[in-house]
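[job 4471] stage=fold_predict status=RUNNING
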Amino acid sequence: MTRYRILLITGNVHKKREVEIILSDYESMFEVEMEPNIRKVEVQADDIYDIARQAMLDISRIVKPRKDTYLVLEDDGLYIEALGGFPGPYSEYVYRTLGLEGILKIMSGIENRSAVFRAALGVLTPSGKVEVVQGSCRGRIADSKRGKGGFGYDPIFVPLGYDITFAEMGIEEKCKISHRARAFRTLADLIVSGVLK
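[job 4471] inference complete, writing structure tokens
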């Protein structure tokens, strides 16, 4: 059986753990490792697709492709409908500066709490191609922070069809439905089917 290596450009151990759980459905076909030493340049753009693509194009100029290894970076964003898609591609910056309390304060009194989490994976394939794979999860912004699990915006995001936040559900449940899960499953299917080489 062919084994594939996913090398994540991140120092976030929570992301690595989630990707391992997501790809565990593929019967040990994937080995997930972290590569925290490659610097990802944050491109200023309004679309995470463009950010992920440009960041991986930049990396592909300095990193050589490796056999059976897929170099992957993730860019994601929380898009809140009533705020015109804010914070979107600026989600990490907004999280660091305003925090969850800041988002909840901005949303105070707003009835439309619809939101979507989006993930874009910039991928450098073993043959040296740069591709982007996306995933999304619809839901809504909770009225308050809830739950101790997860990270980032998880305590305020309630996925569609649920009454609990990502932070209130177990990691295994989150990894079935999240934007990250959908993006990485799509990536795994493309790799296993031979579409991405």
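[job 4471] summary: The two ends are 16 Å apart (CA to CA).
[job 4471] exit 0
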